[in-house]
Amino acid sequence: MAERKVRVRFAPSPTGALHIGGVRTALYNYLFARQHNGDLIFRIEDTDSHRFVPGAEEYILESFKWLGIHFDEGVSFGGEHGPYRQSERREIYKKYVQVLLENGKAYIAFDTPEELDAKRAEIANFQYDASTRGMMRNSLTMPKEEVDALIAEGKQYVVRFKIEPNEDVRVNDLIRGEVIINSSILDDKVLYKSADELPTYHLANIVDDHLMEVSHVIRGEEWLPSAPLHVLLYRAFGWEDTMPEFAHLPLLLKPEGNGKLSKRDGDRLGFPVFPLEWHDPKSGDVSSGYRESGYLPEAVINFLALLGWNPGNDQEVMSMDELVKLFDLNHCSKSGAKFDYKKGTWFNHEYIMMKPDAELAQLFKPVLAANGVDAAAYSDVYLAKVVSLVKGRVNFVKELWDQSRFFFAAPTQYAEKDVKKRWSEDTPRIMGELITVLEGIADFSSKPSEDIVIGWITEKGYHMGNVMNAFRLAVVGECKGPHMFDITELLGKDETISRIRSAVEKLG
Ligand code: GLU
User: Fold this and answer.
1) Which residues are within 8 A (CB) of 496 and not within 5 positions of it... i.e. 6 or more apart?
2) Which parts of the sequence bind ATP (predicted)?
């Protein structure tokens, strides 16, 4: 058989914010598609109208835009296999439901919810399947005329898949190997409901994967139980030759303890489980997002890529292009991946360190504005230098402010405990001398100023720590920050001296 073109899809249901696990699924599909010069499709599975949430589709699209995951076709991207929104494909599904009915692979059932409940009460572990369908109200047990009459009358019905019992259904999973399930444990799934004239997830999913020529279905482990049914549906249609390969990704687990990662874990431990901030239109609740929390998209991508996959060695920092080269479904783990959110913070720090200072400075501008600083009053070169001096101390862009505020305003207060420790009676006199020394420095850049000031302290026999810390206290407002002479170089001679003067005035 000729090699098939790789075509994969990400097919969310627009039921709310996209969970971070869904983002990982989309990422793996994207990496796989790019690696094989294939196509990535964005399909919206909105056949369950009760669960539709306005804004969800836009939210999902914006998330991928931010993360740099691009689609080749689909909702909002166009393409030749559309429409890509399932609610716009009703007629297509109706046609295929008819095909199954005609070749005896499906049947019509009239049982009302009450009748089904009654059966459940009567028969323990009731399941609508080969063992029970003979006693239910359906087109297998009723004469054709009666069925037609009921339909003509407008009675509601569903179409069920007629699953043959006692058959071992094999699913070849690229991650899990062969998974075998006996068809007797499956129920006759509802494929279509006359009430809303819509197919259920299973039918729409298979028909679309087929028509959209999907070659690989890469999705979360929670869909593994549906896979045997999907295999049977492909067969019922006679499409086994184009059946996609399956790969079910491991679950994302709680950072600590057992079980699936949930939004509550995020709330409790203080990390987002959504890519972007989400405003729930119904409850009004706001959930935090990676973007608004200050994560860089590259860091989020790198972090997610390693939740369930590794490159086969201990390399951790990988760009999107490297991930495309290295990604391999064979290196995905079968067991769940612990959501180590602290690792996410670590990645963010790494990506901040790798980012060119000029770019980081641009990201810092809105933070400055939020803190009342007119960023336009500073040159890009100045801002880039500032961030270069403090970025090693932060995990998030917004934390740059706390580390660098003294570059934008002279201190108005001085940290009390530092004053107590470093500002003694003799300090104003020594600071006066320091001012004279600084005034005499011709080249105020870091190294030459350092040599001169240190030389003076040594020559005078002053206490190095006390003098330098008092100097820092006067300039910064507290005894922390980057290398002192890198600070003074950037502030310049006049500003440095004026800060020492005002500290002497204020602290006496
Ligand atoms: N609509 C399903 C979801 O929300 C798609 C599952 C699949 O990929 O088959 O994840």
Assistant:
1) 438, 475, 488
2) 263
Model pLDDT, residue 1: 52
User: Ligand 1 atom 5: the closest Cα is on which residue?
Assistant: 11
**pLDDT attached to residue 258:** 85
- Domains of the chain and CATH, by start: 89-249 (3.90.800.10), 263-348 (1.10.1160.10), 355-405 (1.10.8.70), 416-507 (1.10.10.350)
Identity at 158, one-letter amino acid code: V
Model confidence over 335-365: pLDDT tens digits? 999 999 999 999 999 999 999 999 999 999 9
> What pLDDT sits at residue 257?
81
DSSP SS3 for 44: strand
More confident residue, 50 or 64: 64
Up-side HSE of residue 219: CA atoms within 13 Å toward CB? 20
pLDDT > 60? residue 273: yes
The b-or-e profile of 196-210 (16+ CB within 10 A means b, else e) is: eebbbbbbbbbbbbb
Do strands 7-10 and 39-42 pair parallel, antiparallel, or not at all (unpaired)?
parallel
Q: What is the CA radius of gyration of the chain?
A: 32
pTM score: 0.92
